[in-house]
Amino acid sequence: MEPQIFQKIEAAKSPDFGAILSKSFELFKKIWVEGMLHLLVILAVILPLIAVIYVPFITTFIKAEANGYSDFNPLMEYSVVWIAIYIVAFLLIMILIQTITYSITAHFFQVCKKNDTGKPIETGGYFVYLKNHFQKILTLSLAAFGITLLAAILCYLPIFYVMVPLQLMFVIFAFNPQLSVSEIVKAGFRLGNRFWLIVFGLIIVSSLIAQLGIILCGIGILATAFFTHIPMYYFYKETIGFDEELQENSSVNSF
């Protein structure tokens, strides 16, 4: 028997594009500091991991600079085995970075809900999802990587299609961590297929708005970058919704 979320997806009504953006702006005014803090936490964690990727090449770059970069070919400096090991390590680090990013973003979705509904939600901190659902988020990251890789192999055009369900997968996970990985992926694609154009439009518009922070000497991007996730929160709320809302409605109707 399929989880209830699939019934909600099938019964979901088409959300209002303009209303979602309008609500997103209003919520952004309240939580832009929270969004910036989430981004800073992500950067604090992943920047050392990114640095690790470049550490093996430090001596090579120093040597190249000493020689004036004449006749310099970095691939000739290392054996095929070393390059293969490095590529594997690089992919593992990138997947770990993606896992950390997704887990902290899932926490941000809970912050969105808390501020939107005005109800206290104990989420336990930035790393609560990483602590409680590390294996599931890692598997989701691998699934997302595999889907993206397959789309890229197919001449890149399918990436425009899969970017919608990939965005939805992690907001679905944030509010339904009890679902299995396969169910989350399936729900992301099913919801994405129903409202692909709306979600795609929200992704493009919110991404452009998020880039406006560059105007403020570049550092403003720290404050606006997480705006992209707020429309996804409202899209989820308008289509799937939350169980407690259904309970409240049934209570009101019973009077």
Would you give an account of this structure?
The chain is 76% helix and 0% strand. The chain has 255 residues and is mainly alpha-helical. The protein has one domain (4-240). Helix 2 (17-54) runs antiparallel to helix 4, helix 2 crosses helix 10 (229-239) and helix 4 (80-117) crosses helix 6.
Question: DSSP strand (E) fraction?
Answer: under 5%
Enumerate the spans where pLDDT stays under 50 for 5 or more consecutive residues. 246-255
Count of strand segments: 0
Which series of helices and strands comes N to C?
A: HHHHHHHHHHH
- Number of DSSP helices? 11
Q: How many independent structural domains?
A: 1
How can the largest sheet be summarized? none
Shape: globular
Termini distance? 33 Å
Q: If you average the pLDDT, what whole number results?
A: 86
Oligomer: single chain
Annotate the secondary structure layout:
Elements: H1 4-11, H2 17-54, H3 58-66, H4 80-117, H5 128-153, H6 158-175, H7 181-194, H8 196-210, H9 221-224, H10 229-239, H11 243-254
Helix pairs in contact: 1-7, 2-4, 2-10, 4-5, 4-6, 5-6, 6-7, 6-8, 8-10
Looking at this protein, list some descriptive labels.
single chain, about 260 residues, mainly alpha, about 0% strand, globular
Could you give a quick summary of the protein structure above?
The protein is mainly α and 255 residues long. It has eleven helices and no strands.
